[in-house]
């Protein structure tokens, strides 16, 4: 099985670092790359093939940068993961898919369950914000394989403690969600 990992926003933060916590000099692009890289190592250790690309070009918006959707479709990937960090003062994780009833919805539920199960013991106020359909997200709409966009927590709330101290747990939980989904496919 081939897993394409897209850590959110631009490599090195230029031109788009994503969400920022200026007080702690944290950027979404850096956290997402850390989680994505670690997740990739865990998935490879589980025997899956992984390709990772962090690029701010989603679907041709930034010529000269590789388009993550085209790269995933052309590889071709079996699963697409876009890893992000949220902002806006909330708490918890949420995972988006194109259609709740499809394979992407099943993948999203597996990942969301693992994130919440893993991180809640460290912080009981970490919320399960659920799995949500968002067919307008480019990475969900234009990929040809089951795809999810994962918001691991909020960079501008108390979640920042989990985001900075439990990055390895975040990466492992995403990888476990993928393997849970893959095991379901084998059994089905």
TrEMBL record:
InterPro entries: MurNAc-LAA_cat, N-acetylmuramoyl_amidase_3. Keywords: Hydrolase. One of its GO terms (biological process) is peptidoglycan catabolic process. One of its GO terms (cellular component) is outer membrane-bounded periplasmic space. It comes from the Bacteria. Pfam families: Amidase_3 (PF01520). One of its GO terms (molecular function) is N-acetylmuramoyl-L-alanine amidase activity. Coiled coil: none annotated. Residues 69-179 form the MurNAc-LAA domain. This is N-acetylmuramoyl-L-alanine amidase. It comes from Selenomonas caprae.
């Amino acid at each position: 099985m081939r897993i394409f990992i897209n850590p959110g926003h631009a490599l090195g933060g230029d031109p788009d670092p994503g969400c920022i916590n200026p007080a702690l000099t944290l950027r979404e692009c850096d956290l997402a790359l850390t989680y994505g890289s670690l997740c990739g190592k865990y998935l490879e250790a589980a025997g899956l093939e992984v390709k990772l690309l962090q690029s701010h070009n989603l679907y041709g918006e930034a010529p000269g940068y590789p388009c993550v959707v085209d790269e995933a479709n052309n590889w071709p990937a079996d699963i697409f993961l876009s890893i992000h960090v949220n902002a806006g003062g909330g708490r918890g994780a949420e995972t988006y898919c194109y259609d709740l009833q499809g394979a992407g919805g099943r993948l999203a539920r597996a990942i969301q369950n693992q994130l919440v199960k893993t991180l809640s013991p460290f912080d009981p106020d970490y919320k399960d914000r659920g799995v949500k359909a968002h067919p307008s997200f480019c990475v969900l709409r234009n990929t040809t394989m089951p795809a999810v966009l994962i918001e691991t927590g909020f960079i501008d709330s108390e979640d920042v403690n989990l985001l900075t101290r439990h990055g390895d747990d975040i990466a492992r939980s995403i990888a476990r969600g993928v393997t849970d989904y893959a095991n379901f496919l084998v059994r089905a």
